[in-house]
Design goal:
By secondary structure, this protein is an alpha+beta fold. Helix content is 25%, strand content 25%.
C-alpha cells in the first residue's frame, strides 16, 4: 500500500477550496484535505470526474503523528522467579536463612545443618534472569494515527469561512449512505424480484470516503477520519453561525506502514 504518495502522485489543488482568509500565513502552515480514490493496486489519487474537486484548507493548531510499534518479551516467564516467586525471592535476599535457624536451632560446625546453611548462602545476590528473559520480538503494529486540531475563523463571511469547510469535513467523516432497510430477508426478496443487486443486498450501505492530508510539504494518503469533534461552546455571530471553530480530529491510515511507505513522504514543492 502506497500510503504516502510520492511527489509525482501529489494532487494539484483546484481553486474550489473551502477555507478562511489566511493572508500572510506561510503555505507550509496551511493543511489541505481532499477526497481520494484508489487508482491502482497501490495508488491513491484525487477522485476523477470532478472538474474542480473541493478541498478544505486550514491551519493546524496541534498536529501529531504517532506510530505504535508492538515489541513484546515472550520469554519473561521462562525464569524460575515466575514458577516460585516467593521462594526465589527469599533465596536471593537471604531471608530463608533466619527461618531455617529458627526451626532447626543454631548450627554447629561440621553438622549437616551447617552445610545446609553454606549451601543456602550461595543463592544470596544471584538471580535467574538472563538476556533471554528480556529478549523482545516484533509483534506487529496498528495503523498510524494523526491527531490534529483544525482552526477555522471568519473575517468576512461566517457561512463560507467556517460553516462550509467544517460541514465538508463532517460529510467526509460520516458514512456516504446508510440503508434504511435493516432486514436481509427483505433485501433478498428484492434481489429475487430483480429490483436489487446481490452486492447491494448483502452490503446495502456506503462507508465514509477516504481523504488525503497535505501539510508542510508532505502528503499522507489514504486516510480516514476516525473521530471528529464539534466544540459547541465556540463563539457565534448574530445569526447563530460559528465565528471560530477549533475542530479536533483523529486521522488514521488504512494499514500499517513499512519503510517504503515512509520514504514516499519526501518533502514536495508547495
Amino acid at each position: 500500500m502506497a500510503t504516502i504518495p510520492s511527489i509525482g502522485q501529489a494532487a494539484t489543488l483546484g481553486a474550489n477550496a473551502l477555507t478562511s482568509i489566511w493572508d500572510g500565513l506561510s503555505p507550509h502552515l496551511i493543511a489541505t484535505f481532499y477526497e481520494v480514490a484508489k487508482t491502482g493496486d497501490d495508488a491513491w489519487d484525487r477522485i476523477e470526474g470532478k472538474t474542480d474537486p473541493i478541498a478544505v484548507m486550514a491551519p493546524l493548531t496541534d498536529a501529531n503523528l504517532e506510530m505504535v510499534l508492538n515489541w513484546q518479551s515472550p520469554f519473561e516467564q521462562a525464569g524460575p522467579e515466575s514458577k516460585a516467586p516467593a521462594l526465589m525471592a527469599m533465596l536471593q535476599s537471604g531471608a530463608l536463612q533466619p527461618v531455617v535457624d529458627a526451626v532447626m536451632g543454631k548450627s554447629k560446625e561440621g553438622t549437616a545443618q551447617q552445610k545446609s546453611n553454606e549451601f543456602l548462602k550461595q543463592f544470596e545476590g544471584r538471580t535467574g534472569i538472563t538476556k533471554l528473559n528480556s529478549t523482545q520480538v516484533f509483534n506487529g503494529m496498528p495503523p498510524v494515527k494523526i491527531t490534529v486540531t483544525v482552526l477555522f475563523r471568519a473575517w468576512r463571511d461566517t457561512a463560507s469561512e467556517v460553516e462550509a469547510p467544517f460541514n465538508k469535513l463532517m460529510e467526509w467523516a460520516l458514512p456516504i449512505e446508510l440503508s434504511k432497510d435493516g432486514s436481509v430477508l427483505a433485501r433478498a426478496a428484492e434481489t429475487a424480484k430483480g429490483d436489487m443487486g446481490y452486492v447491494e443486498a448483502l452490503m446495502p450501505s456506503k462507508a465514509p470516503t477516504r481523504i488525503a492530508l497535505k501539510y508542510k510539504g508532505r502528503i499522507f494518503s489514504p486516510l480516514v477520519i476516525e473521530s471528529i469533534g464539534m466544540p459547541l461552546n465556540s463563539p457565534v455571530d448574530a445569526n447563530g453561525r460559528f465565528v471560530q471553530l477549533a475542530v479536533p480530529m483523529t486521522l488514521c491510515t488504512l494499514t500499517a506502514l513499512d519503510r517504503k511507505d515512509w520514504s514516499n513522504s519526501a518533502v514536495v514543492s508547495m
